[in-house]
Amino acid sequence: MLIQNEQNRLVIDHMQEINDKDLIRRCRKGDVESFGEIVQKYQKMIYNIVLRMVPDPADADDITQTAFVKAYEKLGSYRTEYPFFSWIHRIAVNEALNFLKQQKRIVALDDTHESVGDDPESEYSRNELQERIDRALEKLTPEYRIIIVLRHFGELSYSEIGEILDVPVKTVKSRLFTARQELRSILT
After folding, report:
1. How far apart are CA 50 and CA 63, in angstroms?
2. Domain definitions of the chain by residue range
3. How many other C-beta atoms can be found within 10 angstroms of the C-beta atom of residue 85?
4. DSSP classification of residue 56
5. Average pLDDT over residues 28-42
6. How far apart, in Å, are the Cα atoms of 159 and each of 7, 79, 138, 165?
7. pTM of the predicted model, to two decimals?
8. CA atoms of 73 and 86, how far apart (whole Å)
């Protein structure tokens, strides 16, 4: 079953890559609406990743917009043999890290939570756990926080994270191991 799910994901990823390449080709020929389709496709995903790095929703929105503007401006330098998904994520992650450097401090993660419709006790427990995790994440360095966010909140593969951060898969695994150890230590 796991192999079947992975094969299905690979087929879907391949189809998305073909669609992205077509949109990019059209955009490079002057069809600006094609880039709008790319933005619609990836905006929510990018925003959620950035929001885990930069907890203020307004800042996350600004960084997301900046990432797409930079992607549009540099579309000519995008190499189509690589997945667009990784390229735009990398731009967004770099923008978030630059923002954090400019702030010269790591800010607290947003403590607002959406209701999931469970009973109040379960919801309270879930919110309390999420707050503990958020507080623990804010204590990690940006380097370790982004690895945790991309893997566990973005649900990206090791190779996708490696492409985004421009590091080998072994480095991703090593950093993720260390980040998890630090997170565990903070939480216990």
Report:
1. 7
2. 2-187
3. 20
4. -
5. 87
6. 16, 17, 25, 10
7. 0.61
8. 17
